[in-house]
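To whoever picks this up:

The parser on our side crashed when reading a file containing two proteins. I've narrowed it down to the boundary between the first structure block and the second sequence. Both blocks are reproduced below exactly, byte for byte. First block:
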Amino acid sequence: MMTSINRRESMKSYIMASSLLPEKLWRAAFLINEDERIEAEEFRLRLGRPFSIVVRGQQKDIYSGGKAVTVTADDIEAVITSATDHSYHSWEEQISRGFITAKGGFRIGLCGHIGMGERGRVLRDITSVNIRVSRQIVGVGEQLAQRLMKNGFKDTLIISPPGVGKTTLLRDMCRVLSYHYRLSVADCRCEIGGSLMGENAFDLGKSDVMCGGNKSHVINMLIRSMSPEIIALDEITEAADIAAIEEGSYTGCAFLATAHGVSLENMSCRPLYRRLFDTGVFENAVLLERVGGERICRIFERSFENGQACWRGDDNYILLGDRPVVKP
């Protein structure tokens, strides 16, 4: 059960995310009930299709007056204009990578036509927009963090499919761990902290936060300047990220990171992540998944049998923000 404080903060995040929408879609966003707004995860805009909201992993088309609220080209343009503060060209490089991070840490995914412009690859004729409702749920990572600290924190990789809540979990774990360790955050897309200052900033406790840049550069900067015991980062996606983590691990710094995947077996079959496992940096893996509308996770520890590395899973699943449970 979400606390009244977390319900209030979740509603605040929903209101902030919906403010990126044009008036027609903003009004439509408030046609769903309060509980759905609190648990909403994404706003989905597809040109010529119904405006939809993802709640508990399910897409819900929005109707007004018995008719679907249909997304137009003007609606999509209005979202991009709002997110870029009327300065599209200043954001062109980020847009070319398929996303924008708006104030408050709201990641806006984009789809359209990839072409070449004067300054390289550009994304034009945008036909789909996905606004993720970034929110803070204080306490969601408390029990997991305490379990990982029990015998001293060791390098940990959080694994889950997209949209299950890796960043929300990582955000709260940064808050908890920062009161026990010198923790720095490589927040390269400015999503974990939301913003460095002001009302849009998430509570990361005593963390030292570096926004922008690329992960490999930021990791090196943090190690040199902040002497962290733990560095947290979201979504390992490139070989350069892995190289920086491996090099950083030689300094004695531990890492808390996330990656997309559905299982350890799935991860080890993909060349990029097989290399990540082969480095031997991560001693713990946390598998995060959604079961019956709830988010649960399980801790795996790396061990060795007959000279080969293997992963042993804890028998207890953790219901995030609550108590240990047995998986149904």
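<<boundary where parser fails>>
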Amino acid sequence: MHIKNKITILFSLVLVLVLSSCNHDRNTPGAQYMDDMVTAISYEDYSPNPIFANGQTGQLPVEGTISRGHMPYSFSKTPEGQTLAGEQLVNPFKDKKDVLEKGEKQYNIYCLICHGDAGKGNGTLYESGKFTALPSDLSDDRIKNMPDGEIYHIITKGSISGLMGAHGPQIKPENRWKIITFIRDRF
């Protein structure tokens, strides 16, 4: 057999193999030649896992680690913690007018329902009677004289009186500062 014939036969076999692996039905994946790369061998969430000593697939983070992009908030929900936050935290957006639009949008999402459009505390929750205590008037001298860090603390942890709940889990830290910048400019 000539080398030319061998090459022709080999080429024909490869061509038949390639064409047989193609499937014109777009709803099927075709043949799997390396199954371990297509089908994951990982454990499903909440399924038993013999690899770990406690037998659980979902593990707690290693003690002392911090999730990427998140910094722990170290001030406690106490009068002392609020005062300390007021002394140590500085608004990075103070006097920056370009953040007012974003601050207003965030205010309208998270604050408007309680504090109202004019910041007087007469939002729809209070006006409807669903919230019986009048929220703080944001134009009040007490709020105007409060350091930005204390307002940030109250947004993050909630008020010490318990009247305002913690919004730290819902509002990103930079957006809390933008809300404060908006409040300082508007009220």
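After patching the parser it read the second block fine. The two ends are 95 Å apart (CA to CA). DSSP finds nine helices and no strands in the chain.
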